[in-house]
Structure formats: structure tokens, C-alpha cells
Amino acid sequence: MLTLVIIFGIFVPALSYIKKTADESYKLRVYMEQKYDQSLRLRVTRNKLEEIKKSTADFHTYIFKTGDELKIITYLENLAAKYHVTQTINNSNLDKVGNNQITSISMNLAGNYGDALMYIAELETSDYFIYINSMRASPAFTRSGETTLNINLSLTIELYVNQ
User: I want to staple 63 with a disulfide (CB 3.0 to 4.6 A). Which of 12, 113, 148, 162 is the partner?
Assistant: First the structure.
């Protein structure tokens, strides 16, 4: 009888307390491992963030900013003069950018086929992030109806805007 009292009075509560402590220790270990993994991922993320910041530090010079309307128009005019093409800007929302992240410019080019292609090639490789949204080319005809090496080109370009 005394043995039963000792077993049920001392050993069973002690064993249940030991099991409860072991379960709590296991849960604490799992929690600490999760926190350790999160801290490792956070360190990697911080390192990647610093790399991204370094690599994108000079992007602001390539993005059109509100207030630089004259700068982009001057660039387009100088480009047209460089390649001897006649440029006419038909429509633009440069002065009405607002909350948009993209602005567009519609223009017509007229000139020699090769010069127009050089104009487009330099436009695509310019310092601005320019996307040619649409381009339509048509041959230019003389008054007598003969074709020439000249071309009429309608372009719609888009610029990414940093406000």
C-alpha cells in the first residue's frame, strides 16, 4: 500500500511534470530555430537590398522627371537634326503627367530611310527609358508618283516618369 501511495503520490506527478517540461522545451527549441532562420533570411535580404540600392543609384538620371520637358524636347530635336530628318511632334502629355508613371509622345518623321532607321536606333539606345509603342512607316512619293528613298514615319513613344 505504501508503495502505491509513493508511486501515485510522487512518481506519477513527477513524470507528468517531466513530460510537460520536455514538451515545453521542444516547443521553445522549435520557436528559437524559426527565429534563427528568420534572422538569417533577414540578413540575406538586407544584403540584397543594399546591392539593389547600389545598382539602381544612378537610374534616376535615365528616367524622365517632371520639369524636364524642355530637356527631352531638345534631345528629340537634336536627334532629328543629327540624322537630317524632319520631326513634327503631334501630341504629348509631358506637361500633364500627374500621377501617371508613363507619358507618351506622338510624332511624325520624314527623311531618308537609312537616316530614319539611325534615328530610331539612337532613340532606343538613349539614356532615357523609352519604349516605342507604335510605329507606322509609309514610302514617300514624288509629285509624279514615283517612289523615293524617303520615308514618312509615325511614332508613338512612351517615357517612364519619376516625379
Answer: 162
> Which numeric CATH code is attached to 61-162?
3.30.70.60
- pLDDT number for residue 127: 78
Q: How many CB atoms lie within 10 A of CB 103?
A: 21
Phi first, then psi: give them for residue 91, nearest 5 degrees: -150, 140
What ranges do the domains of the chain cover?
1-57, 61-162
For 37-48, how does the pLDDT look when each residue is reduced to its tens digit (9 = 90+)? Answer: 998 888 888 888
Residues 6+ apart with CB under 8 A from 94: 69, 72, 73, 103, 105
Quick check: pTM over 0.70? Answer: no
